[in-house]
Amino acid sequence: MSKVYKKTSGNGTIALYLGKRDFVDHVDRVDVVDGIVKVDPSGLNGRKVFVYLACAFRYGSDDLDVIGLSFRRDIWLKKVQVYPAADGNPTKTPMQESLLKKVGEQGCPFSFQMPTNLPCSVSLHPGPNDNGKFLSQACGVDFEVKAYIANEASNPDEVIDKKDTCRLMIRKIQFAPTNKAGPKVEVSKQFMMSDKPIHMEASLEKEIYYHGDPITVNVKINNETSKTIKKIKVSVDQLANVVLYSSDTYTKDVCSDEFAENIAANSTFEKSYQVTPLLSNNKEKRGFAIDGKLKDEDTNLASTTLSQGEKEMQGIIIHYKVKVTVTASGGGLLGGLTGSDVVVELPLTLMSPKPAEITDVAVDAVEA
């Protein structure tokens, strides 16, 4: 059974109902955002009722707005008039039909179709000393459904009282598609004063890994040099591309393990290593991206963003890579002074599995 989420305005004139708060981006389409607004006409005083859905990039809490500055930039916004109904008698979804049976004749349905190039809900994780007004929800991409009472849908001169509004935060999320064979990358590196190289091949067992699952990295080495390999480091980097007025990419190491090895000169080596990137192991770090969350519920590292070809997206775009670093120490009189690294990088898709489909609809509303 799914819950129905409800938010009532301060004056009790309107109430917003949503059947869910997570809406799935299927890459080629996004779930329709549908709901009901219950309207008491006696409290409108001749005004109308509107609903909007907004995707916004927030870079500060609303509490920081002390000199009229807005710490928010709308990426996408759409508004509809629900009372009086502006588009006749639209086709209702099964969820709206169920809600109307509970709400009655005062229910006004609405729906929004999001475009496919909007980012998913992502927040930037605060550092351990970021307390008070700077919260993880204050910086990142979020989605908001808001019902409000006004004379016009968009009049900058009209002041809308907070008691005439009600809103619910929602999330746009993606789930892992069907898994495929993992990537494989080969590299050869030749060093100074050595006529032969080190060959390395690294591969992943599959293309997609779920949050919390160990990632198996297969490493093959053919050391044709006179150097001895002493250490192999396997790390996972998160790349957060913040696309607004310009494009900036921030790289954060979210998982790193070193393994002591002794691979002699002119020898071959093959071994598998496991690393597990977890949010719980990065709590003391600041600035890496996590999946958007509602209130104080648990979340995880931000999921990889699946995009549709070269279609331009704004917001925060997430990618991951696995990096394998082999450290070889030189022999002879110079010893470790001639140490060298061989590095290979593999693309990683880190996501949540698609949950079982929920077909039952509950009409008991939970005040959010």
Note the main attributes of this structure.
49% strand; mainly beta; 368 residues; elongated; single chain; 5-stranded mixed beta sheet; 3% helix; 7-stranded mixed beta sheet; 1 helix
Would you give an account of this structure?
The protein is mostly beta strands. It has 1 helix and 21 strands. The strands form 4 sheets. Strands 3, 5, 6, 8, 9, 10 and 18 form a 7-stranded mixed β-sheet that branches. A 5-stranded mixed β-sheet has the order 7-4-2-1-21, covered by helices on one side. The radius of gyration is 26 Å and the shape is elongated. About 7% of the residues have low confidence.
Strand elements, count: 21
Q: What is the N-to-C succession of helices and strands?
A: EEEEEEHEEEEEEEEEEEEEEE
| Derived structural class | mainly beta
Q: What is the molecular shape?
A: elongated
Kindly report how far apart the N and C termini lie.
17 Å
What is the helix tally? Answer: 1
Query: How many whole angstroms does the radius of gyration measure?
Result: 26 Å
Share of β-strand residues:
over 45%
Low-confidence stretches: 64-68, 130-137, 332-337, 358-363
User: Mean pLDDT, rounded to whole units?
Assistant: 84
Helix proportion range: under 10%
Write the layout of secondary structure elements.
Elements: E1 2-8, E2 14-18, E3 22-24, E4 33-39, E5 48-59, E6 72-83, H1 94-103, E7 107-112, E8 122-124, E9 139-150, E10 165-173, E11 184-190, E12 197-204, E13 208-210, E14 215-223, E15 228-243, E16 247-263, E17 267-275, E18 289-291, E19 315-329, E20 340-351, E21 361-367
Structure in a nutshell:
The chain is mainly beta and 368 residues long. It has one helix at residues 94-103, and strands at residues 2-8, 14-18, 22-24, 33-39, 48-59, 72-83, 107-112, 122-124, 139-150, 165-173, 184-190, 197-204, 208-210, 215-223, 228-243, 247-263, 267-275, 289-291, 315-329, 340-351, 361-367.
